[in-house]
Amino acid sequence: QKSGLVEATRILKGIEGIAFIYFKESDVVRHPLVARIIKAYEEAERGGGAGP
């Protein structure tokens, strides 16, 4: 399934008044608990198991 965001970027690029800002992971500030949850999911995807 196509990402709606990717599709919107493709369709809307070049339209005057519309701009896209791309963030890196280091640009995003999260609550510490949310950061730990995201890290746990990333580690699980890499086969690192679940939990501390």
UniProtKB/TrEMBL annotation:
Gene Ontology terms, MF aspect = ATP binding
Q: Name one GO cellular component term.
A: cytosol
State where the protein is found. Cytoplasm
All copies of the PhoH-like protein domain together span 1-42
Q: Which UniProt keywords apply?
A: ATP-binding, Cytoplasm, Nucleotide-binding
Q: Does the keyword Cytoplasm apply?
A: yes
Q: Is ATP-binding tagged as a keyword?
A: yes
The record's section on Gene3D superfamilies has: P-loop containing nucleotide triphosphate hydrolases
The family annotation for this protein states: Belongs to the PhoH family.
Q: Which PANTHER family is this protein grouped with?
A: PHOH-LIKE PROTEIN, PROTEIN PHOH
Name of the protein described by the UniProt record: PhoH-like protein
